[in-house]
Amino acid sequence: MVARLNLFAAVTVASLFATAAQAADYAPPPCYDAAIIAAGRAPPGAVPCYAPPPPVVEEFGGWYLRGYVGMSNQQAKLSHPSFNERPYTHQDDGFDSAPFFGAGVGYYFNEWLRFDVTGEYRGSANYHGYGTYPGGSDEYRARKKEWVGLLNAYVDLGTWNRLTPFVGAGVGGAYNTVSSFLDINTPTGGVYSAQSGSKFNFAWALHAGFAYKVTPNFTVELAYRYLDLGKAVTGNGVSFDGTNANGRPFEFDKLISHDIMLGLRFNLDGFEMFSRPAPVYYAPAPVYSPPPVYVQPPLQSRG
């Protein structure tokens, strides 16, 4: 009886080792290159080899071009040394609206922050002013134009249904030119003119607006801009009879503009030479069924 039990134990242990060996020796079916499978040169039921995808790296950035047009609404304070020599009151002064246009190049730093550099020409705006002093009054006329360059930074505040609100600020310079300046004495009709004059100033701006993404690479903008242009000056003054050609110039101080702008933005990623490579998609790893496990049934003892 003891011999039979020992024999049973030995057979059971051997069966377990054989089963474990079978499981260890199991190998998944061979895989084949996807190109071989597509060409029909692989056996039926062949599976493609799985290549683990590379680690995902978040990429931001991208260059863009922009162009824009707009209308200005400018304000300034006309000053002259003679205004301080006698009581003088400005009754009315201001500029007509004038068109401007500009272009630039920018870079998306990430999904929230972008920068651009712009150059802009601001067309001539007519100035009309009127002031009074004891015993008389003066009417003023002039034309003014500018060249403006700005380095701007914007924060995009999120996108809803392709619409992205944004705010921004810019710093740079403005080259302001005043021409056709006339000082007309209303009671007498006497005319005092000034030569054309130009001045370069520090300029800064604040932006707020909305951008609508028409396509992934094409965006339309509508924005408001507060622009500080510094000051503008005329050349020397000239009396109506040509004398006193070295008269003191007039100045337009605190020159600002409230601008409405319509612009276009085009992402350079739309060109093949600037575009990133297309993403590569990997098939999921094949899942194999576990190997079967065989269990040796117990031996029946014969009594």
Automatic annotation (TrEMBL):
Originating species: Undibacter mobilis
Keywords associated with the record: Signal
UniProt cross-references to Pfam families, sorted A to Z: OMP_b-brl (PF13505)
Protein's UniProt name: Porin family protein
Signal peptide (UniProt feature, chain positions): 1-23
Residue ranges annotated for the Outer membrane protein beta-barrel domain, each copy included: 57-242
Gene3D superfamilies in the cross-refs: 2.40.160.20
Cross-referenced SUPFAM superfamilies: OMPA-like
